Amino acid sequence: MEVHFNLLDGSNPFSIESIGYQWEQEMIMRADGYPYYHWLQTEKGLGEVTIENEKIRLRPSEGILIAPFVSHYYEAISANGWQTNFLTINGSFSPNIADILGAAPYYLANDCPDFSYSDWTRRMLSRIKNENQNSQQQQLSIDVYTFLLNIRDHGLHRTVHTNDLYQQYIWPSIQWIETNYVEKCDIADIAKRLYISPQYLNKLFRRFVGVSVYQYVLAYRIKKAKEILVTNRDIKIKDITFLIGFNDTSHFVATFKKETGFTPKEFRSFY
C-alpha cells in the first residue's frame, strides 16, 4: 500500500493532488462531492459507488472518474474488504477537463489491452518517489493528460436517458444551459428554441430532472463557482460573480450562502 497527498502544483496544466495504490478503502460519504476530478478503481475485492441515485459496483480492474462537486458515497461490499487505487487531479487546465471528456457527472473505465489504469497508477507512484521535482511535475502533467485521453477513448460516459421527451427537450436544454450559463438563461428563450411553452419545459424538467429550469441553472452556476473558488484562488469574488452569470456581487454572495451554508470566502478557505 502506498499513498501520497498534497502534491498540488498549479503551474502546470494538470497535476496530481493525491494518489494511492492498493489502498484499504474505508467508507466515504461526500454530500457536496470532491473539489477535483477523482478516479477510483478496484484493485481487489468489490466496492459500490452511489452517485445520482445510481448504484455502481466496481469489480477488480473497474474504475470510475467522478467530476468535481458531484455528490457521492462509496463503501466495500465484499466480506474481505475493498482495496482501491485512486487519483485526484488538479492543475491550471483542470476546469477544462469537461472539454476533453464531455460534460457528465462520472465516467466508467476499466483496464484493457490498450491501456491499464492500474499499471499507470503504479508507474506514477514510482515516478513521484524517484524523479527530480521539476522534471517530475512537467512529465506528470503530460501523463495525466494521457490518462484523461484514455478515459475519453476507452471509457463509458453516463448513459443519457433514452426517453424520447428527454432526448428531444431536456438533453438539448441541459447542453445549452451548461454552455451558456454565463449569459442570461431565461426559460422563455430556452423554450422558444425548442418550440414549446415555458410551462411545458418546466413540467418536463421536474419530471426528468427533479427540479425546475431555474433551479437547474442556479445549481449549475453554484457548481461552477465552487470550481473557480478552489482551482483559481487568485480570482476575486467580485470577478467570479460575472464569470458564472450573476450581475451583482451581493446577490451572488447571498445566493451562494443560501445554497451552501457558507459565503464564497468561507468556502474557499476550506480548500
TrEMBL record:
Matching InterPro entries: AraC-bd, Homeodomain-like_sf, HTH-like, HTH_AraC, HTH_AraC-typ_CS, Tscrpt_reg_AraC-type_HTH
Q: Which UniProt keywords apply?
A: DNA-binding, Transcription, Transcription regulation
Molecular function as annotated in GO: DNA-binding transcription factor activity; sequence-specific DNA binding
Q: Could you confirm whether the keyword Transcription appears in this record?
A: yes
Bilayer-crossing residues are none
Q: Which residues form the HTH araC/xylS-type domain?
A: 171-270
SMART domains, per this entry?
HTH_ARAC
> What PANTHER family does this protein map onto?
ARAC-FAMILY TRANSCRIPTIONAL REGULATOR, HTH-TYPE TRANSCRIPTIONAL ACTIVATOR RHAS
Q: What is this protein called?
A: HTH araC/xylS-type domain-containing protein
Q: Which organism is it from?
A: Niallia circulans
